């Protein structure tokens, strides 16, 4: 039997050379070249190669250019675990690869790939599943088992705490759920704590999928409620899985199921207390979940028992969602005994609260130390007198120094700020106050007061002392940022 061959009209055959040239021009190769052959009359076959001394970002790169219609088919191949790139590099792009507080130990060098293992400083063994592959021509890295290799060993970062409010009343929340979830870094991972409740019939008693999704806000779009949150937060190559699975066998955002129970009043509540070791609150990490969203689903997450790459856990509709934001409070000053102005910000550094900002006045703000306290009431009227006294969490607290611990200081005793040329640069780290509603020493929705004189920290432990800091020069109300 005679095999049929492709018939190429003469008019097209005359254009084939031009089509081949166009294909080569559309795929330029610095530090390399194309070699093209024409086996028979049907096509050109062009192969890429790098100049001597250059590093190829591919094992094989071939173009087939059809002489029938000029269509081009590209076939490429790379080393295992690498994505091919049409690149010829004059230098090794993996030479600068590094990991904070750790070493990348070179295990193998190939023609286009270097393989490393991560070892954290002070560790006896390499990090688990820590193989890191780097394309020598492009510097592209593949580390599916430890995608956060660059920050995995960091132990000197004190991340902020984050929260997600399901009923914020803004584009940062959507749906029928009430409640809030707070996130804090612990030695075991990121802890999610709080509660979620609703009377919505979709929010029935039982398990509900609880995930971090890719987008932050707005959370509604034309597709419907919470659809603006996008899909589960995941990195390239990850599939849906259980929270206990290792990467890439779970998305970053595959956190948990939460369990709702009946309250007896037509509502149901799910307490949240989950710690996940595979997400991060470090903004430098690829596993960082800040500025994304939490979505709670109508049904249980089945954790994809068949490892289906298209699965999202079959958890159903989205009765509620919210944007993950840092826990911060700000305070904008108004003057009383002086024309004080400026803003200060309260935020977490690990488990302590950092206070920063600038306060200034054109007069009556003498150089030197001035008492700086949290006062009990969220009020600034009557020259700040409506702010009340120093904030105390319990009646047995007496006035003291910031380094003291209640009851040997008021919760609101933040010490002094220093004024130079009418300006105070505030930078205080406090170990007592809290920015989480419901916790001891929570200072949200109270006032900050700056006084005329320095706070003497009550050296005699006088129960009636307030630090002898004198009149109130200005104040402000603490509001969630």
Helical residue percent band: under 10%
Task: Output the number of helix runs.
Answer: 1
Shape summary: elongated
- Name of the CATH superfamily of the largest domain: Superoxide dismutase, copper/zinc binding domain
The biggest beta sheet, please? 10 strands, antiparallel
Percentage beta strand: 35-45%
Protein name: Oidioi.mRNA.OKI2018_I69.PAR.g9701.t1.cds
Domain Superoxide dismutase copper/zinc binding: 179-324, 341-477
InterPro entries: SOD-like_Cu/Zn_dom_sf (IPR036423), SOD_Cu/Zn_/chaperone (IPR024134), SOD_Cu_Zn_dom (IPR001424)
Describe this structure in words.
- The chain is mainly beta and 481 residues long.
- The chain has four domains: 10-88; 91-156; 162-326, Immunoglobulin-like (Sandwich); 328-480, Superoxide dismutase, copper/zinc binding domain (Immunoglobulin-like, Sandwich).
- The protein is built from one helix and 29 strands.
- A ten-stranded antiparallel sheet has the order 12-19-18-15-16-17-14-13-11-20, with no helix packed on it. An eight-stranded antiparallel beta barrel has the order 21-23-24-27-26-25-28-29. The protein has a four-stranded antiparallel sheet with strand order 1-2-4-5.
- The longest helix has 16 residues, at 10-25.
- It is elongated and about 100 Å long.
- Pfam families: Sod_Cu.
- This is Oidioi.mRNA.OKI2018_I69.PAR.g9701.t1.cds.
């Amino acid at each position: 039997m005679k095999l049929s061959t492709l018939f190429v009209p003469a008019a097209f055959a005359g254009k084939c050379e031009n089509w081949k040239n166009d294909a080569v021009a559309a795929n330029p190769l610095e530090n390399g070249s194309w070699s093209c052959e024409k086996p028979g009359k049907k096509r050109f076959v062009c192969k890429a190669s790098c100049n001597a001394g250059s590093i190829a970002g591919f094992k094989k790169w071939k173009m087939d250019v059809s002489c029938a219609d000029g269509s081009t088919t590209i076939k490429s191949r790379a080393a295992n675990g690498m994505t091919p790139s049409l690149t010829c590099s004059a230098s090794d792009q993996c030479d600068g690869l590094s990991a904070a507080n750790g070493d990348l130990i070179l295990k193998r060098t190939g023609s286009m790939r270097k393989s490393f293992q991560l070892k954290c400083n002070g560790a006896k063994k390499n990090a688990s599943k820590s193989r890191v592959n780097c394309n020598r021509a492009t510097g592209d890295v593949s580390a599916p088992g430890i995608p956060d290799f660059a920050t995995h060993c960091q132990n000197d970062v004190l991340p902020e705490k984050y929260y997600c409010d399901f009923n914020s009343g803004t584009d940062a929340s959507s749906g029928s759920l009430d409640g809030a979830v707070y996130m804090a870094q612990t030695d075991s991972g990121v802890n999610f704590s709080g509660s979620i409740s609703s009377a919505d019939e979709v929010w029935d008693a039982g398990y509900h999928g609880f995930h971090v999704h890719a987008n932050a806000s707005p959370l509604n779009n034309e597709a419907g409620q919470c659809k603006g949150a996008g899909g589960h937060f995941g990195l390239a190559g990850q599939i849906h899985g259980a929270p206990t699975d290792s990467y890439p066998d779970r998305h970053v955002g595959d956190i948990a199921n939460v369990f709702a129970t009946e309250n007896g009043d037509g509502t149901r509540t799910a307490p949240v207390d989950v710690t996940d070791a595979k997400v991060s609150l470090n903004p430098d990490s690829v596993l960082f979940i800040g500025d994304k969203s939490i979505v709670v689903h109508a049904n249980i997450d089945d954790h994809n028992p068949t490892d289906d790459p298209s699965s999202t856990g079959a958890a159903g509709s989205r009765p509620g969602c919210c944007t993950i934001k840092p826990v911060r409070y700000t305070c904008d000053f108004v003057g009383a005994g002086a024309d004080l102005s400026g803003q200060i910000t309260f935020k977490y550094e690990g488990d302590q609260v950092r206070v920063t900002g600038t306060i200034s006045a054109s007069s009556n703000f003498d150089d030197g130390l001035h008492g700086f306290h949290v006062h009990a009431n969220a009020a600034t009227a009557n020259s700040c007198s409506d702010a009340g006294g120093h904030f105390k969490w319990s009646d047995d607290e007496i006035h003291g120094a910031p380094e003291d611990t209640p009851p040997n200081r008021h919760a609101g005793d933040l010490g002094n700020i220093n004024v130079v040329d009418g300006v105070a640069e505030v930078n205080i780290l406090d170990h007592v106050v809290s920015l989480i509603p419901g916790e001891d020493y929570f200072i949200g929705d109270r006032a900050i007061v700056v006084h005329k004189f320095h706070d003497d920290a009550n050296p005699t432990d006088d129960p009636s002392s307030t630090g002898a800091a004198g009149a109130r020069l200005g104040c402000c109300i603490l509001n969630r940022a």
